[in-house]
Protein backbone atom coordinates (compact mmCIF):
# COMPACT_ATOMS: atom_id res chain seq x y z
CA UNK A 1 0.00 0.00 0.00
CA UNK A 2 1.35 3.41 -0.92
CA UNK A 3 0.41 6.34 1.28
CA UNK A 4 0.08 9.93 0.10
CA UNK A 5 3.06 12.25 0.14
CA UNK A 6 1.22 14.83 2.21
CA UNK A 7 1.11 12.42 5.14
CA UNK A 8 4.83 13.02 5.50
CA UNK A 9 3.95 16.49 6.76
CA UNK A 10 1.42 15.36 9.33
CA UNK A 11 2.71 15.57 12.88
CA UNK A 12 1.27 14.04 16.02
CA UNK A 13 1.03 14.54 19.75
CA UNK A 14 4.29 12.87 20.65
CA UNK A 15 3.17 12.96 24.28
CA UNK A 16 1.29 9.74 23.55
CA UNK A 17 4.64 7.91 23.30
CA UNK A 18 5.36 9.08 26.84
CA UNK A 19 2.19 7.28 27.92
CA UNK A 20 3.48 4.12 26.30
CA UNK A 21 6.73 4.32 28.24
CA UNK A 22 4.78 4.93 31.43
CA UNK A 23 2.61 1.87 30.73
CA UNK A 24 5.66 -0.29 30.09
CA UNK A 25 7.18 0.91 33.36
CA UNK A 26 3.96 0.13 35.19
CA UNK A 27 3.81 -3.36 33.68
CA UNK A 28 7.13 -4.10 35.36
CA UNK A 29 5.28 -3.70 38.66
CA UNK A 30 6.47 -0.18 39.47
CA UNK A 31 4.36 2.83 40.40
CA UNK A 32 4.01 5.58 37.79
CA UNK A 33 3.11 9.16 38.64
CA UNK A 34 1.28 10.43 35.53
CA UNK A 35 2.21 14.06 35.00
CA UNK A 36 2.44 13.55 31.23
CA UNK A 37 -1.14 13.73 29.92
CA UNK A 38 -3.29 16.84 29.84
CA UNK A 39 -6.37 14.83 30.80
CA UNK A 40 -8.43 15.06 33.99
CA UNK A 41 -9.00 12.25 36.47
CA UNK A 42 -11.99 14.19 37.86
CA UNK A 43 -15.42 13.02 36.65
CA UNK A 44 -17.76 15.17 34.55
CA UNK A 45 -20.33 16.89 36.83
CA UNK A 46 -23.37 14.64 37.34
CA UNK A 47 -25.97 17.19 36.17
CA UNK A 48 -24.25 17.21 32.75
CA UNK A 49 -24.25 13.41 32.59
CA UNK A 50 -27.93 13.26 33.63
CA UNK A 51 -29.04 15.77 30.97
CA UNK A 52 -27.19 13.88 28.28
CA UNK A 53 -28.72 10.60 29.35
CA UNK A 54 -32.18 12.17 29.27
CA UNK A 55 -31.50 13.49 25.76
CA UNK A 56 -30.59 9.99 24.58
CA UNK A 57 -33.76 8.59 26.09
CA UNK A 58 -35.77 11.40 24.48
CA UNK A 59 -34.54 10.25 21.09
CA UNK A 60 -31.93 12.96 20.43
CA UNK A 61 -29.95 10.40 18.51
CA UNK A 62 -30.36 11.41 14.87
CA UNK A 63 -28.50 13.95 12.74
CA UNK A 64 -28.74 17.57 13.83
CA UNK A 65 -27.76 20.80 12.02
CA UNK A 66 -24.10 20.84 10.85
CA UNK A 67 -23.46 24.08 12.75
CA UNK A 68 -24.93 22.57 15.91
CA UNK A 69 -28.16 22.93 17.89
CA UNK A 70 -29.34 26.57 17.75
CA UNK A 71 -30.06 26.40 21.49
CA UNK A 72 -26.47 25.47 22.29
CA UNK A 73 -25.06 27.99 19.82
CA UNK A 74 -27.15 30.68 21.49
CA UNK A 75 -26.03 29.88 25.03
CA UNK A 76 -22.38 29.69 23.94
CA UNK A 77 -22.70 33.07 22.19
CA UNK A 78 -24.19 34.55 25.37
CA UNK A 79 -21.76 32.93 27.81
CA UNK A 80 -18.59 33.49 25.82
CA UNK A 81 -19.74 36.99 24.87
CA UNK A 82 -20.57 37.99 28.45
CA UNK A 83 -17.36 36.54 29.91
CA UNK A 84 -15.30 38.43 27.36
CA UNK A 85 -17.35 41.59 26.93
CA UNK A 86 -18.07 40.86 23.24
CA UNK A 87 -21.43 40.92 21.51
CA UNK A 88 -21.95 37.58 19.72
CA UNK A 89 -25.10 36.01 18.27
CA UNK A 90 -25.65 32.33 17.59
CA UNK A 91 -24.70 32.99 13.94
CA UNK A 92 -21.14 33.54 15.20
CA UNK A 93 -20.95 30.03 16.67
CA UNK A 94 -20.30 26.67 14.99
CA UNK A 95 -20.39 23.64 17.29
CA UNK A 96 -17.50 21.23 16.88
CA UNK A 97 -16.55 17.80 18.17
CA UNK A 98 -14.00 19.28 20.59
CA UNK A 99 -11.75 22.30 20.42
CA UNK A 100 -9.11 20.61 18.29
CA UNK A 101 -11.09 20.54 14.98
CA UNK A 102 -11.26 24.35 15.10
CA UNK A 103 -7.51 24.47 14.44
CA UNK A 104 -7.73 22.45 11.25
CA UNK A 105 -10.80 24.31 9.96
CA UNK A 106 -9.20 27.68 10.66
CA UNK A 107 -6.17 26.69 8.59
CA UNK A 108 -8.17 25.08 5.78
CA UNK A 109 -10.43 28.12 5.50
CA UNK A 110 -7.76 30.82 5.57
CA UNK A 111 -4.37 29.48 4.52
CA UNK A 112 -3.24 28.82 0.96
CA UNK A 113 -0.17 26.63 0.33
CA UNK A 114 2.91 28.76 1.00
CA UNK A 115 1.15 31.21 3.29
CA UNK A 116 2.91 31.88 6.58
CA UNK A 117 1.33 31.11 9.95
CA UNK A 118 2.80 32.32 13.24
CA UNK A 119 2.36 29.87 16.10
CA UNK A 120 3.77 29.47 19.62
CA UNK A 121 6.76 27.21 20.20
CA UNK A 122 6.77 25.65 22.74
CA UNK A 123 3.07 25.22 22.05
CA UNK A 124 0.26 22.79 21.42
CA UNK A 125 1.81 20.48 18.77
CA UNK A 126 -1.25 20.27 16.53
CA UNK A 127 -0.75 23.84 15.24
CA UNK A 128 2.52 22.99 13.53
CA UNK A 129 1.21 19.64 12.31
CA UNK A 130 -1.84 21.18 10.63
CA UNK A 131 0.05 24.11 9.10
CA UNK A 132 2.55 21.73 7.50
CA UNK A 133 -0.08 19.19 6.46
CA UNK A 134 -1.91 21.84 4.48
CA UNK A 135 1.41 23.03 3.02
CA UNK A 136 1.73 26.33 4.81
CA UNK A 137 4.89 27.90 6.14
CA UNK A 138 5.12 27.25 9.88
CA UNK A 139 6.67 30.26 11.62
CA UNK A 140 7.34 29.63 15.32
CA UNK A 141 7.44 32.40 17.89
CA UNK A 142 8.90 31.83 21.32
CA UNK A 143 8.64 32.93 24.92
CA UNK A 144 11.42 34.42 27.04
CA UNK A 145 11.55 33.52 30.72
CA UNK A 146 11.39 36.48 33.08
CA UNK A 147 11.72 36.34 36.89
CA UNK A 148 8.25 35.12 37.66
CA UNK A 149 6.70 34.63 34.24
CA UNK A 150 7.25 34.17 30.52
CA UNK A 151 6.89 36.82 27.84
CA UNK A 152 6.50 36.56 24.09
CA UNK A 153 9.71 37.40 22.24
CA UNK A 154 8.25 40.39 20.43
CA UNK A 155 11.36 41.18 18.49
CA UNK A 156 11.65 37.72 16.96
CA UNK A 157 7.93 37.53 16.25
CA UNK A 158 7.77 40.78 14.31
CA UNK A 159 11.01 40.15 12.44
CA UNK A 160 9.72 36.81 11.15
CA UNK A 161 6.71 38.36 9.42
CA UNK A 162 6.87 38.83 5.66
CA UNK A 163 4.36 39.60 2.88
CA UNK A 164 3.24 35.94 2.81
CA UNK A 165 2.36 35.80 6.51
CA UNK A 166 -1.41 35.54 6.79
CA UNK A 167 -2.36 33.99 10.14
CA UNK A 168 -1.40 34.17 13.79
CA UNK A 169 -2.21 31.49 16.35
CA UNK A 170 -2.33 32.85 19.87
CA UNK A 171 -2.84 30.60 22.89
CA UNK A 172 -3.25 32.88 25.85
CA UNK A 173 -3.34 30.77 29.00
CA UNK A 174 -0.75 28.72 27.29
CA UNK A 175 -0.08 25.02 27.05
CA UNK A 176 2.61 23.96 28.03
CA UNK A 177 4.04 27.04 29.76
CA UNK A 178 1.02 28.36 31.62
CA UNK A 179 2.08 31.80 30.38
CA UNK A 180 -0.44 34.61 30.16
CA UNK A 181 -0.17 37.99 28.47
CA UNK A 182 -0.59 41.16 30.47
CA UNK A 183 -2.68 43.81 28.73
CA UNK A 184 0.37 45.44 27.20
CA UNK A 185 1.47 42.20 25.54
CA UNK A 186 -2.04 41.37 24.35
CA UNK A 187 -2.45 44.86 22.87
CA UNK A 188 0.90 44.50 21.16
CA UNK A 189 -0.18 41.20 19.56
CA UNK A 190 -3.48 42.77 18.48
CA UNK A 191 -1.65 45.73 16.95
CA UNK A 192 0.68 43.37 15.07
CA UNK A 193 -2.36 41.51 13.71
CA UNK A 194 -3.89 44.79 12.51
CA UNK A 195 -0.63 46.23 11.18
CA UNK A 196 0.15 43.16 9.05
CA UNK A 197 -3.47 42.24 8.33
CA UNK A 198 -3.28 38.85 10.06
CA UNK A 199 -6.32 36.77 11.02
CA UNK A 200 -6.01 35.41 14.56
CA UNK A 201 -6.93 32.05 16.02
CA UNK A 202 -7.32 32.67 19.74
CA UNK A 203 -7.06 29.27 21.38
CA UNK A 204 -8.94 29.81 24.64
CA UNK A 205 -9.05 26.20 25.84
CA UNK A 206 -7.90 27.29 29.33
CA UNK A 207 -9.77 30.62 29.57
CA UNK A 208 -11.87 29.34 32.50
CA UNK A 209 -9.12 27.39 34.24
CA UNK A 210 -8.10 30.36 36.33
CA UNK A 211 -7.17 30.46 40.00
CA UNK A 212 -6.49 34.17 40.55
CA UNK A 213 -7.22 37.28 38.48
CA UNK A 214 -9.47 37.47 35.43
CA UNK A 215 -9.14 36.18 31.88
CA UNK A 216 -9.26 38.46 28.85
CA UNK A 217 -9.79 37.58 25.20
CA UNK A 218 -7.84 39.27 22.43
CA UNK A 219 -11.14 39.31 20.50
CA UNK A 220 -12.41 41.94 22.95
CA UNK A 221 -9.74 44.49 21.99
CA UNK A 222 -10.70 47.24 19.50
CA UNK A 223 -11.26 46.00 15.94
CA UNK A 224 -10.23 42.44 16.84
CA UNK A 225 -13.63 40.73 16.88
CA UNK A 226 -13.79 40.88 13.08
CA UNK A 227 -10.38 39.27 12.62
CA UNK A 228 -10.44 36.66 15.40
CA UNK A 229 -11.75 33.11 15.70
CA UNK A 230 -12.05 31.85 19.28
CA UNK A 231 -11.41 28.17 19.96
CA UNK A 232 -13.83 27.25 22.73
CA UNK A 233 -13.99 23.85 24.43
CA UNK A 234 -15.94 22.11 27.18
CA UNK A 235 -13.04 19.66 27.66
CA UNK A 236 -11.13 21.30 30.49
CA UNK A 237 -13.62 23.51 32.35
CA UNK A 238 -16.19 20.74 32.75
CA UNK A 239 -13.85 17.72 32.71
CA UNK A 240 -15.35 16.60 29.39
CA UNK A 241 -12.21 15.67 27.41
CA UNK A 242 -13.66 12.41 26.09
CA UNK A 243 -17.07 13.85 25.20
CA UNK A 244 -15.66 15.82 22.27
CA UNK A 245 -17.56 19.08 22.46
CA UNK A 246 -16.32 22.53 21.54
CA UNK A 247 -17.01 25.44 19.22
CA UNK A 248 -15.56 27.98 16.83
CA UNK A 249 -16.71 31.55 17.46
CA UNK A 250 -15.95 34.17 14.86
CA UNK A 251 -17.14 36.38 11.99
CA UNK A 252 -20.38 35.10 10.42
CA UNK A 253 -19.08 34.81 6.83
CA UNK A 254 -16.18 32.70 8.10
CA UNK A 255 -18.44 30.55 10.28
CA UNK A 256 -20.39 29.70 7.11
CA UNK A 257 -17.18 28.24 5.68
CA UNK A 258 -16.57 26.34 8.91
CA UNK A 259 -20.08 24.89 8.58
CA UNK A 260 -19.36 23.78 5.01
CA UNK A 261 -16.18 22.08 6.21
CA UNK A 262 -18.18 20.45 9.02
CA UNK A 263 -20.68 19.09 6.49
CA UNK A 264 -17.78 17.50 4.62
CA UNK A 265 -15.88 16.26 7.67
CA UNK A 266 -18.35 15.11 10.29
CA UNK A 267 -21.91 16.02 9.13
CA UNK A 268 -22.69 17.27 12.61
CA UNK A 269 -21.45 17.06 16.17
CA UNK A 270 -22.91 14.25 18.30
CA UNK A 271 -26.54 15.12 18.95
CA UNK A 272 -27.24 14.16 22.58
CA UNK A 273 -23.81 15.34 23.80
CA UNK A 274 -24.89 18.88 22.92
CA UNK A 275 -27.62 18.69 25.57
CA UNK A 276 -24.84 18.05 28.08
CA UNK A 277 -23.22 21.25 26.80
CA UNK A 278 -26.45 23.21 27.30
CA UNK A 279 -26.70 21.92 30.87
CA UNK A 280 -23.02 22.75 31.52
CA UNK A 281 -23.61 26.39 30.61
CA UNK A 282 -27.19 26.86 31.82
CA UNK A 283 -27.33 24.55 34.84
CA UNK A 284 -25.68 24.54 38.25
CA UNK A 285 -22.00 25.41 38.27
CA UNK A 286 -21.05 23.49 41.44
CA UNK A 287 -19.31 20.79 39.39
CA UNK A 288 -17.08 23.20 37.47
CA UNK A 289 -16.30 25.11 40.68
CA UNK A 290 -15.29 21.90 42.40
CA UNK A 291 -12.97 20.97 39.51
CA UNK A 292 -11.27 24.35 39.72
CA UNK A 293 -10.93 24.13 43.49
CA UNK A 294 -9.32 20.70 43.26
CA UNK A 295 -6.93 21.85 40.53
CA UNK A 296 -5.88 24.85 42.61
CA UNK A 297 -5.06 22.62 45.59
CA UNK A 298 -2.92 20.45 43.30
CA UNK A 299 -1.20 23.45 41.74
CA UNK A 300 -0.27 24.88 45.11
CA UNK A 301 0.95 21.56 46.42
CA UNK A 302 3.02 20.65 43.37
CA UNK A 303 4.50 24.13 43.02
CA UNK A 304 5.44 24.20 46.72
CA UNK A 305 7.19 20.85 46.39
CA UNK A 306 9.06 21.85 43.24
CA UNK A 307 10.02 25.23 44.72
CA UNK A 308 11.67 23.40 47.61
CA UNK A 309 14.13 21.69 45.24
CA UNK A 310 17.01 24.18 44.86
CA UNK A 311 18.07 22.99 41.40
CA UNK A 312 14.60 23.57 39.92
CA UNK A 313 13.23 26.98 38.99
CA UNK A 314 9.49 27.07 38.73
CA UNK A 315 6.92 29.76 38.07
CA UNK A 316 3.40 29.35 39.45
CA UNK A 317 0.89 30.26 36.74
CA UNK A 318 -2.58 31.51 37.65
CA UNK A 319 -4.14 29.55 34.80
CA UNK A 320 -4.03 26.16 33.01
CA UNK A 321 -3.16 22.96 34.84
CA UNK A 322 0.50 22.85 33.93
CA UNK A 323 3.80 23.78 35.54
CA UNK A 324 6.77 24.31 33.26
CA UNK A 325 9.87 24.24 35.46
CA UNK A 326 13.38 25.08 34.32
CA UNK A 327 15.35 21.87 34.99
CA UNK A 328 18.62 22.93 33.36
CA UNK A 329 20.68 22.32 36.51
CA UNK A 330 19.39 18.79 37.04
CA UNK A 331 19.88 18.03 33.36
CA UNK A 332 23.53 19.03 33.75
CA UNK A 333 23.92 17.19 37.06
CA UNK A 334 22.65 14.01 35.44
CA UNK A 335 24.98 14.62 32.50
CA UNK A 336 22.17 14.03 30.01
CA UNK A 337 22.76 14.47 26.30
CA UNK A 338 19.12 14.51 25.20
CA UNK A 339 15.69 15.34 26.59
CA UNK A 340 14.67 11.71 26.07
CA UNK A 341 17.60 10.47 28.15
CA UNK A 342 16.62 12.93 30.89
CA UNK A 343 12.96 11.96 30.85
CA UNK A 344 13.63 8.23 30.94
CA UNK A 345 16.24 8.55 33.68
CA UNK A 346 13.80 10.35 35.99
CA UNK A 347 11.02 7.89 35.08
CA UNK A 348 13.18 4.88 35.81
CA UNK A 349 14.58 6.25 39.06
CA UNK A 350 11.38 7.71 40.51
CA UNK A 351 8.33 6.72 38.45
CA UNK A 352 7.68 10.43 37.78
CA UNK A 353 6.47 10.68 34.18
CA UNK A 354 6.32 14.01 32.34
CA UNK A 355 6.60 15.51 28.89
CA UNK A 356 9.62 17.57 27.98
CA UNK A 357 9.85 20.82 26.07
CA UNK A 358 10.57 18.77 22.94
CA UNK A 359 7.01 17.41 22.91
CA UNK A 360 5.79 20.93 22.17
CA UNK A 361 7.80 21.76 19.05
CA UNK A 362 11.40 21.63 17.91
CA UNK A 363 13.60 23.67 20.27
CA UNK A 364 14.96 26.82 18.63
CA UNK A 365 18.69 26.76 17.76
CA UNK A 366 19.62 29.41 20.36
CA UNK A 367 17.65 27.77 23.17
CA UNK A 368 19.93 26.78 26.05
CA UNK A 369 17.63 26.24 29.02
CA UNK A 370 15.87 22.91 29.59
CA UNK A 371 12.22 22.67 30.54
CA UNK A 372 9.70 19.93 31.28
CA UNK A 373 5.92 20.04 31.68
CA UNK A 374 4.11 18.72 34.72
CA UNK A 375 0.34 18.32 34.15
CA UNK A 376 -1.41 18.03 37.51
CA UNK A 377 -4.90 17.38 36.12
CA UNK A 378 -4.64 13.61 36.23
CA UNK A 379 -2.87 12.97 39.52
CA UNK A 380 -4.23 12.97 43.07
CA UNK A 381 -2.97 14.99 46.03
CA UNK A 382 -1.74 11.78 47.64
CA UNK A 383 0.21 10.84 44.53
CA UNK A 384 1.67 14.34 44.20
CA UNK A 385 3.03 14.07 47.74
CA UNK A 386 4.34 10.55 47.20
CA UNK A 387 5.97 11.35 43.86
CA UNK A 388 7.64 14.50 45.11
CA UNK A 389 9.14 12.66 48.08
CA UNK A 390 10.63 10.17 45.62
CA UNK A 391 11.88 12.93 43.31
CA UNK A 392 13.52 14.79 46.18
CA UNK A 393 15.07 11.58 47.51
CA UNK A 394 16.67 11.10 44.11
CA UNK A 395 17.70 14.70 43.47
CA UNK A 396 18.84 16.06 46.82
CA UNK A 397 21.86 13.73 47.22
CA UNK A 398 22.94 14.72 43.70
CA UNK A 399 22.66 18.38 44.62
CA UNK A 400 24.70 17.84 47.78
CA UNK A 401 27.32 15.99 45.77
CA UNK A 402 27.61 18.89 43.32
CA UNK A 403 27.76 21.40 46.20
CA UNK A 404 30.53 19.48 47.93
CA UNK A 405 32.65 19.17 44.77
C1 LIG B 1 -3.97 24.58 23.92
C2 LIG B 1 -4.97 23.55 23.58
N1 LIG B 1 -5.83 23.79 22.58
C3 LIG B 1 -6.75 22.89 22.20
C4 LIG B 1 -6.85 21.68 22.85
C5 LIG B 1 -7.87 20.69 22.35
O1 LIG B 1 -8.88 20.51 23.23
P1 LIG B 1 -10.07 19.48 22.93
O2 LIG B 1 -9.88 18.33 23.85
O3 LIG B 1 -11.31 20.23 23.24
O4 LIG B 1 -10.02 19.09 21.50
C6 LIG B 1 -5.97 21.38 23.89
C7 LIG B 1 -6.03 20.07 24.56
O5 LIG B 1 -5.17 19.66 25.30
C8 LIG B 1 -5.01 22.33 24.27
O6 LIG B 1 -4.14 22.11 25.26
Describe the protein:
It is globular and about 65 Å long. The model has no long low-confidence stretch (mean pLDDT 95). The protein has a seven-stranded mixed β-sheet with strand order 2-10-9-8-7-3-4, with helices on both faces. 41% of the residues lie in helices and 13% in strands. The chain has 13 helices and 14 strands. It is an alpha/beta fold. A hairpin with a 4-residue loop joins β5 and β6. The protein binds pyridoxal-5'-phosphate.
Query: Which class do the helix and strand fractions yield?
Result: alpha/beta
Fraction of residues in helices? Answer: 40-55%
β-sheet strand percentage: 5-15%
Distance between the termini: 59 Å
The run of helices and strands is HEHHEHEHEEEHEHEEEHHHEHHEEEH
Oligomerization: single chain
Please provide a brief summary of the model.
It contains 13 helices and 14 strands. The chain has 405 residues and is an alpha/beta fold. Residues 38, 98-100, 124, 171, 175, 203, 205, 233, 235, 241, 246 line the site of pyridoxal-5'-phosphate.
Break the fold down into its secondary structure elements and pairings:
Layout lengths: L14 H13 L5 E2 L11 H12 L12 H15 L8 E4 L3 H11 L5 E5 L5 H8 L3 E5 L1 E3 L4 E3 L1 H6 L5 E6 L12 H13 L3 E5 L24 E6 L12 E4 L2 H14 L5 H12 L3 H22 L14 E2 L4 H6 L5 H12 L1 E2 L1 E2 L15 E4 L5 H24 L1
Parallel strand pairs: 1-12, 3-4, 3-7, 7-8, 8-9
Antiparallel strand pairs: 2-10, 5-6, 9-10, 11-14, 13-14
Helix pairs in contact: 2-9, 3-9, 4-5, 4-8, 10-13
Amino acid sequence: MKFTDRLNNLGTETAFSVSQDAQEFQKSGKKVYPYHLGDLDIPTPSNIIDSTYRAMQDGKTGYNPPAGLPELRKIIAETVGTERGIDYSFHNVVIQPGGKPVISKFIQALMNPGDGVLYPNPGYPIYESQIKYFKGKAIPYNYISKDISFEIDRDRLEKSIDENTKLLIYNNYQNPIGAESDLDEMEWIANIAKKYNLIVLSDEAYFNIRYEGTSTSIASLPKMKERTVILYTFSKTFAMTGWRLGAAIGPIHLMKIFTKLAINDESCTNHFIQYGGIEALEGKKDGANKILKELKIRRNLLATHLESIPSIKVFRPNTTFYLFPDVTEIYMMLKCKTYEEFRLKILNETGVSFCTREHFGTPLPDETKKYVRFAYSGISVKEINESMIKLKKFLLPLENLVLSE
